[in-house]
Amino acid sequence: MDVKNKIKIVAIDLDGTLLNSNHEVSPKNADVLRKLEKNGIKVVITTGRAYEAMIRFYKEIGLNGEAICYNGAVVYDKDHNPVWKNTLDHETGLELVKVGEEFNTYHHGFIDNKWVLPEMTDIAREYKNRTGLNETLVDFHQLENIAFTKMMYIGENEILMDIYNVLDDKFGDQLYKAFSNPMFLEIMHRDSSKAKALSFLLEENNLTSDNLLAIGDGYNDFEMLSMAGIGVIMENAPEELKKHFMHKALSNDEDGVGRFLESFFEI
Known about the structure:
Keywords: Hydrolase. This protein is of the alpha/beta class. It folds into 2 domains: 3-85 and 192-265, 3-Layer(aba) Sandwich (Rossmann fold), CATH 3.40.50.1000; 90-189, Hypothetical Protein, Haloacid Dehalogenase-like Hydrolase, Chain: A, domain 2, CATH 3.30.1240. Helices cover 38% and strands 24% of the residues. The protein has helices at residues 3-6, 14-18, 27-38, 51-61, 90-102, 122-131, 157-171, 194-204, 222-227, 239-242, 256-265, and strands spanning 9-12, 42-46, 67-69, 74-76, 82-85, 106-111, 114-117, 135-137, 150-154, 175-181, 184-189, 212-216, 230-234, 247-249. The strands form 2 sheets. The chain has an 8-stranded mixed β-sheet with strand order 5-4-3-2-1-12-13-14, with helices on both faces. Strands 8-7-6-9-11-10 form a 6-stranded mixed β-sheet, sandwiched between helices. Strand 13 (230-234), helix 10 and strand 14 form a beta-alpha-beta unit.
């Protein structure tokens, strides 16, 4: 069977991949994704973003399939219901907050689809502008249950690497830790990742990884691209990542997603 005929699901990261530097979906990319769905191929947005920060792009394009959010912690079906979800327990959440405080590093989380943070700072305002989310201010130490779907630290990479190492010492493999970009360290339940969420979707659809094409640009996309039958790395990805993958797309500012898929599927 021709390789392209094996592909039944196309999983696409958002930031740095489907979205350009202005955080927009280009007309070219949107048009190609609509053509794929029309041809019976599932298009699955696979992002570290919260559901509320993802759904506007899903609707703008006019997609009709599943979506993966919070770096694989939650899978939503085509009716926007969560069908697979992993959350951190209260004790772990509280420890993560304390680590952020000890390092005097900006941190926030997501609980029940709410963006929760202790105060609005310049970093928080920039994040709000980037995602379009509405904040909920809380005192983490007063919450009865800090069941984070995702917890996030934002800061200089050197400090975040120190936090990463501290979390390694404290929790070992009990957490899934991912850099969506060098300044964003995201923490989820250990059973969360884009690759694991996609494995769930493949199994639900009686498919295997050979039926998956995935496109991404970040370190949090590495497992997803590695497990896919066809893993595609963006030109704007770090050089360290690009050397691992044979298939490459133009940058996110050159309609890389749309142009690769148009050529691959000959549409």
